[in-house]
Structure formats: C-alpha cells, structure tokens
Amino acid sequence: QVQLVESGGGLVQAGGSLRLSCAASGGAFSEYVMGWFRQTPGKEREFVAAINWYGDMTSYADSVKGRFTISRDRSKNTVYLQMNSLKPEDTAVYYCAAGRRINNDMRTYTSWGQGTQVTVSS
User: Residue 31's pLDDT is what?
Assistant: First the structure.
C-alpha cells in the first residue's frame, strides 16, 4: 500500500493562494488515482478533486471548480492541489488519498495521508 504525506497547508487571507503537495512512497504511484478531500469539525469528509493515472483526466467538486487545480508529477511521485481565490469556507483539514478509480466516494480510496490544515481568514 502506498504511504502519503501532505504538506503546504497554512494560514492565508481570503483571496489568497496555497499549493498543497502530497508525496507518495512504498507503492506503484503511477497506478493510482489520486484524490484530495477535506474535513471540518463535525462534518463528513468531502471530495475536493481527483486525477487519473496519466494526469489527463480530472474531477472537481462544484464548490472549487475554476479556483482549484489538481496535478501530478509521476517522476516525483507527488500530487499537487493549487488553490486560488481562497474563501473562508475553504478552511478545513485537507487529506490526500490514493484509489483505483476516479470518483468522489471516499470509501473507494484505500490509502490516506495524515492531513494538513488550511485556514482562510476573512
């Protein structure tokens, strides 16, 4: 199973940008679909974005379309989430996940990182 480590979270003002990274190790990274999810206290973890093995197919939650971009660098075993025009409602712990098919159902993702906090101030 692949191990995932997120980084890049932090505090940013509304309208600002952050780039999250997720480094993978211990597995065949290029075989996995990679996804980003987020969670706030008391709420279920929600889908943010996903990207396929080759990086030519992506999927986004409606709430982030046009503002967030997911990408992957297979040579570095890393997936990124570029977040622009951030809003206070984007505040959450962001998790990276690996799965076998591109979709928004967290139950289909088998490996998870520990999460990184993103806080957007108004």
Answer: 78
